[in-house]
């Protein structure tokens, strides 16, 4: 009976393995992403080896290992983009992914090898690398008011509101210059327009004035001839 219970316990440990926890870490493309992992170190004898792998933690070691330590220093490193920047001697074995990429998304295993059967500290991390968010400039609203001149019979004043996105000073459109810089200039322009409009009718019918002149001359000549006959 005792041997049967011992066999069941051994089989249960073999198939279940160590307790595994899982955490989620989210980062952005181009940024350094730190995947946390720590273990307790009471004294120098508590410092132990560990590994990081690019897959779920198996029953032993790491699948697709990317970095190994002997507890004191890094002994194997798959790429310089994978670094341990924490204090290894105090149990900080957090993994830093330098310049994260979308391809770095996936499951990462942190296994701290504790002496004894099935004593390893195992943590699975789900790393999600997303594209950087692009901030959009808030639009600005410009309001222009148009009013009629005093004494005119035009329609009442109204307000027009337009919305444009903000632009830099180099992209801002150039403002057209005012057609008349002062009140006197505007009056001169108005007077010139009025003179032009008055003189247009006389220029449109030059033949009519010629006929009137000829008729007047003929009438005067006829009156002179009659006066000579009468005298």
UniProtKB/TrEMBL annotation:
Membrane topology category: Single-pass type I membrane protein
Gene Ontology CC: one annotated term: membrane
Protein origin, superkingdom: Eukaryota
Gene Ontology terms describing biological process: apoptotic cell clearance; cytoskeletal rearrangement involved in phagocytosis, engulfment
Plastid is among the record's keywords: no
Main localisation: membrane
Region Disordered, residue ranges: 139-181
Gene3D superfamilies: Immunoglobulins
InterPro entries xrefs: Ig-like_dom, Ig-like_dom_sf, Ig-like_fold, Ig_sub, Ig_V-set
Domain Ig-like: 18-130
GO molecular function: phosphatidylserine binding
Pfam families given in the database record: V-set
Keywords tagged on the record: Disulfide bond, Glycoprotein, Immunoglobulin domain, Membrane, Signal, Transmembrane, Transmembrane helix
Keyword DNA repair: no
Annotated compartments: Membrane
Family: Belongs to the immunoglobulin superfamily. TIM family.
Name of the protein: HAVR1 protein
Native source species: Lanius ludovicianus (Loggerhead shrike)
